[in-house]
Amino acid sequence: MRPLIAGNWKMHGMAAQLREIEAMSKTVHAARTAADVLICVPAALLSRAASIAAGRIGIGGEDCHAQASGAYTGDCSADMLKDAGATTMNAGHSDRRKYHGETDAMVAAKAEPARRAGLTTIICIGETQAQRDGGNALAVCGQQIAGSVPTDLARSGTIAIAYEPLSAIGSGHVPAPGQIIEVHRKIRECLLERAGAAGADIRILYGGSVWSDNVHDILGLADVDGVLIGGASLLA
Ligand SMILES: O=C(CO)COP(=O)(O)O
């Protein structure tokens, strides 16, 4: 499977930061990179980022509202992301689950309008350290897949999954390879159960403290079809 190298800028970046999009687009284009490259940016930068990227790399949104329009002050719909130039969006990032109380059902409800808008949705899952310490990591990830991945979307090829264990995000602590392999294998099994053969073609990304010095090793692990990068994606 062609890997996806995705960045997530979170709530970082003013207009000056778009220089990095320019530099990344040029590098990817010139090097004919053997991977798809995508940067998810704050909504305020989306339109300018997409115009600078000019299709050389993908530009994504970081979230959307489940409704197409309405009295939802401060929110942004999947159609709006698409209209601004996005190809992809994130849903269910642990920041959203933690600070906005997003549940699996809410995440699933965002993925469907994204598909209708023509966006691929990267659905983020991952266990907390307490869940891992309690021996529940695989069960938690399985439940998150069951709750946040609509079956028809899994079949339609318009989603990717990002496994981001919370203890790895922004900490510099990447789990042992065995942990990543074990959880990705579990996710693959869940996807095959849900979507049949189509589940084999869904990309499963790893996220959490990915940097230039560990990305090659991580991409070499079984069932790792790409990475979702936070801090390191701010620099071309
Ligand atoms: O949350 C992440 C990407 O969505 C990972 O962030 P870091 O790469 O900064 O650990």
From TrEMBL:
Q: What is its main location?
A: cytoplasm
Hey, which pathway is this one from?
Carbohydrate degradation; glycolysis; D-glyceraldehyde 3-phosphate from glycerone phosphate: step 1/1; Carbohydrate metabolism; erythritol degradation; Carbohydrate biosynthesis; gluconeogenesis
Q: Where in the cell is it found?
A: Cytoplasm
Keyword line: Cytoplasm, Gluconeogenesis, Glycolysis, Isomerase, Plasmid
Q: Which GO terms describe its biological process?
A: gluconeogenesis; glyceraldehyde-3-phosphate biosynthetic process; glycerol catabolic process; glycolytic process
Cellular component aspect of the GO annotation: cytosol
InterPro entries, from UniProt? Aldolase_TIM, TIM_sf, Triosephosphate_isomerase, Triosephosphate_isomerase_AS
Catalytic reaction list: D-glyceraldehyde 3-phosphate = dihydroxyacetone phosphate; L-erythrulose 1-phosphate = D-erythrulose 4-phosphate
Known EC number = 5.3.1.1
One of the record's GO molecular function terms: triose-phosphate isomerase activity
Instruction: Please report a single Pfam family linked to this protein.
Output: TIM
Entry-linked PROSITE patterns: TIM_1, TIM_2
> Can you state the subunit structure given in the record?
Homodimer.
> Which family, according to the similarity comment?
Belongs to the triosephosphate isomerase family.
Q: What is this protein called?
A: Triosephosphate isomerase
